[in-house]
Write a structure and sequence with these properties.
Layout: H1 2-24, E1 31-33, E2 36-39, E3 48-49, E4 55-64, E5 66-73, E6 81-84, E7 91-92, E8 97-100, E9 106-109, E10 115-118, H2 119-122, E11 132-135, E12 141-145, E13 150-154, E14 162-163, E15 169-170, E16 175-177, E17 180-184, E18 190-195, E19 200-204, E20 224-227, E21 232-235, E22 240-242, E23 252-256, E24 262-267, E25 273-278, E26 294-298, E27 302-306, E28 310-312, E29 322-324, E30 343-349, E31 351-353, E32 357-361, H3 366-375, E33 381-385, E34 391-395, E35 401-403, E36 410-416, H4 424-431, E37 443-444, H5 458-488, H6 491-500, H7 512-518, E38 525-529, E39 532-538, E40 544-550, H8 558-570, E41 575-578
Parallel strand pairs: 4-37, 26-35, 40-41
Antiparallel strand pairs: 1-11, 2-8, 3-4, 4-5, 5-6, 5-7, 8-9, 9-10, 11-12, 12-13, 14-23, 15-20, 16-17, 17-18, 18-19, 20-21, 21-22, 23-24, 24-25, 26-27, 28-29, 30-36, 31-35, 32-34, 33-34, 33-36, 38-39, 39-40
Helix pairs in contact: 1-5, 5-6
Bound molecules: 2-acetamido-2-deoxy-beta-D-glucopyranose (11 copies).
């Protein structure tokens, strides 16, 4: 009896120590099975790491107490995200959890239990058993069906703002940052688009050029682009953008950024990013940067300012532009237009506002152009360019403004005659907030909303629960053993009886060898879970049983899942717990 108990305790201890080992050793995994999860409190540990270590995925801080579930370059200094599940819905820094569910779905839950993102929302997945999730060396987060080898879902199909080498960019994908996006247009040309609350406009390839002059074609409708491993971004519209550091073995990314530019970067040895290509050579060519009535200037960094007589609408956000400190009257229909002599024009040199022309006239004098604007109530300014031929553009909305020393024209702004543009208050208003920092709103998640899961409870609670259940099992086993001993007096005969009673008694331990024989060397697989694989077995006497073979690397939630599976199996057949450590 003593031997039996000692053996039993030893088995339990070895199991517990193995479990402890698997919890303590946070060796990065690159494939996980159903039931795996990571809580935001355990974020120093990644959820997955790609086999060669290039990419990691897990929780990244994106604001005050705000976290996202992302994939990033392991070696990048500030963990630059290359893909994010919940970009617009950050989760709480306490109580949030990402799980790969038994239905083969990756799900991100906020502190209060709300699912903020699942792979099912993004693609067609779910409802399938035995799937695995892995992080590929290419940075692709993939849900696979191991039985067929097919990909059920992959992050490459749902890019956020970044394209990685070998990731296909198709007619169905787009890269987005704020109001800016990159996608294939209806005419098969890859373009950058500004899509703001009031207006939308295309700005790359430069709208002044026709697509052939820009080196593109609209005849190939395959609409596919990708960044290859040498550093060439190739598109079916004949775009061939080359990195300045062409070559293999460099870690690259192509990202659309908050300022509307599309840039290629290489990871350098110190974990920083070196820009190796950009779509816009002149950053002010991105539309909407300084908002309505704002002027963009590049010298040598991006700056925004307001037109004379205008004041910034929102000090924290240039995209909202500037509002006039004067009124040029009510231009809605029915109202009488104010008389022209009430206005004068203020010249803003070397400046243009792209688009929103309400009239265009060629071969006119400056005076004719000015009078045209005075006659139109909606005309807020005009642009006049002499270069040989007197070009006159009457402007309605003043959007996409930029100043450049090379620009040959000027803008003439219509203001009331009695308005003093150089008055100190007015002048300072126009000049304020010159640095055009892209003040991306800092995301904040209210720290008061904590979820059910208290800090760090996770794995230890599971461990204690598991050990507790093991203890109860042990007691039962010992009690049964004691009963045999006291009734039959002999250990071997008691065991022999136990053998015979397998079919009727509740618990019985088998040796590994016996289970191996019963299952025909673990041949017929019934199911698969985070903690192991279930096999069909036939015991001596013909009874059909399910045998669960515990995987050595019991994952954090494995035990919970294991017992859930036990309950399920118990309803249909006898359960035999196979223990791979024996
Ligand atoms: C959970 O929290 C989020 C963000 O704090 C909130 O939007 C959502 O309504 C909450 N859901 C529930 C069920 O309380
Ligand atoms: C994973 O990456 C390998 C190359 O590293 C590639 O051959 C394989 O197709 C990729 N799998 C998926 C699903 O992206
Ligand atoms: C990338 O594309 C360029 C241009 O087509 C080609 O010369 C180069 O061989 C390609 N690199 C790889 C790794 O395919
Ligand atoms: C269209 O583009 C694809 C991808 O770049 C290319 O494989 C194909 O040959 C092109 N088709 C034509 C007709 O040029
Ligand atoms: C790496 O890139 C960062 C940021 O661009 C730069 O500051 C740093 O000097 C670079 N380091 C090397 C070794 O090139
Ligand atoms: C990383 O973040 C720090 C602090 O925000 C910043 O000073 C540093 O420039 C960043 N490094 C890179 C490579 O972006
Ligand atoms: C960003 O905007 C907030 C308020 O809108 C302001 O407090 C903060 O100083 C701004 N940051 C920068 C870098 O301009
Ligand atoms: C402009 O005039 C129209 C019609 O007379 C009137 O309905 C509208 O309220 C006026 N708008 C302003 C800003 O005065
Ligand atoms: C200017 O162009 C508009 C149309 O854009 C036209 O209606 C108008 O007659 C032209 N005026 C002159 C003076 O050319
Ligand atoms: C406009 O304001 C400036 C500065 O106060 C002043 O010098 C100038 O005389 C004013 N002009 C008119 C027309 O009032
Ligand atoms: C410009 O706007 C700011 C607030 O955005 C305000 O404090 C300031 O007085 C305004 N200046 C003028 C001249 O109206």
């Amino acid at each position: 009896m003593a031997g039996l108990v000692t053996g039993c305790l030893a088995a339990q201890l070895s199991l517990v120590s193995l479990l402890l080992y698997s919890l303590a050793s946070t060796t990065a995994q690159h494939t996980l099975g159903a039931g795996s999860s990571l809580s935001v409190e355990d974020r120093p540990q990644p959820f997955l790491v790609s086999p060669d270590g290039t990419f990691s995925c897990g929780f990244l801080q994106v604001g005050d107490n705000a976290f996202s579930f992302s994939v990033w370059f392991t070696a990048s200094q500030n963990s630059t995200a290359v893909w994010t599940a919940n970009r617009d819905a950050p989760v709480n820094g306490r109580g949030s959890r990402v799980s790969f569910t038994r239905d083969g779905e990756l799900a991100l839950a906020d502190a209060n239990g709300t699912t903020v993102w699942t792979s099912r929302m993004a693609g067609i997945s779910g409802g399938r058993r035995g799937l695995t999730i892995s992080l590929n060396d290419t940075g692709n987060l993939v849900i696979t069906d191991p039985s067929t080898g097919s990909t059920v879902w992959q992050s490459f199909d749902w890019p956020t703002d970044t394209l990685l080498p070998s990731q296909p960019f198709t007619k169905d994908t787009k890269l987005v940052a704020g109001y800016y996006s990159l996608n294939f247009d209806n005419d098969n040309v890859l373009r950058l688009l500004y899509y703001g609350p009031d207006v939308a406009s295309l700005y790359w390839p430069l709208p002044d050029l026709n697509i052939y002059a820009a080196g593109r074609t609209n005849y190939n409708s395959s609409r596919i682009a990708f960044l290859n491993n040498t550093g060439v971004f190739l598109s079916s519209d004949q775009l061939q953008a080359q990195a300045t550091d062409l070559g293999l073995g460099i870690k690259r990314r192509l990202t659309i950024e908050q300022d509307g530019n599309l840039r290629m970067y290489s990871l350098n040895t110190s974990g920083g990013w070196t820009q190796t290509w950009s779509a816009l050579k002149q950053p002010c060519h991105a539309h909407g940067i300084c908002g309505r009535n704002g002027i963009c200037e590049y010298q040598p960094s991006l700056r925004c300012s307001c037109l004379p007589g205008h004041n910034m609408t929102d000090r924290g956000d240039w995209r909202k532009g500037c509002k006039p400190l004067f009124s040029i009257g009510n231009c809605s229909q029915g109202a009488a237009p104010p008389p022209p002599e009430q206005f004068m024009f203020v010249r803003v040199p070397q400046t243009d506002f792209y688009g929103f022309d309400i009239a265009y006239n060629k071969s006119v004098t400056f005076e004719q152009c000015r009078d045209l604007c005075l006659q139109m109530c909606q005309c807020s300014a005009f642009s006049y360019r002499l270069d040989g031929n007197g070009f006159c553009y009457s402007k309605g909305l003043l959007f996409n403004g930029y100043t450049s020393p090379n620009f040959p024209g000027s803008i003439y702004l219509k203001v009331p005659r009695d308005f003093n543009v150089s008055a100190p208050l007015v002048a300072t208003a126009s000049a304020t907030g010159l640095t055009c920092s892209h003040n991306v709103t800092v995301k904040t998640v209210n720290p008061d909303v904590y979820g059910k899961a208290p800090r760090n409870s996770g794995k230890w609670a599971y461990l204690f629960a598991f050990t507790g259940v093991l203890g109860v099992l042990d007691l039962l086993f010992i009690a049964t053993g004691w009963w045999f001993l006291s009734s039959k007096q002999s250990i071997p005969s008691a065991l022999e009886a136990g053998y015979r009673k397998v079919m009727t008694s509740q618990f019985r331990r088998f040796t590994y060898r016996e289970l191996k024989d019963a299952t025909g060397n673990f041949k017929e697989e019934l199911g698969r879970g985070g903690s192991g694989v279930v096999y069909r077995g036939v015991l001596e006497g013909g009874r059909v049983v399910a045998v669960k073979r515990l995987a050595v690397d019991v994952t954090v939630q494995g035990d919970e899942e294991f017992w859930a599976e036990m309950t399920l199996l118990n309803k249909t057949s006898t359960v035999v717990i196979g223990d791979a450590f024996n």
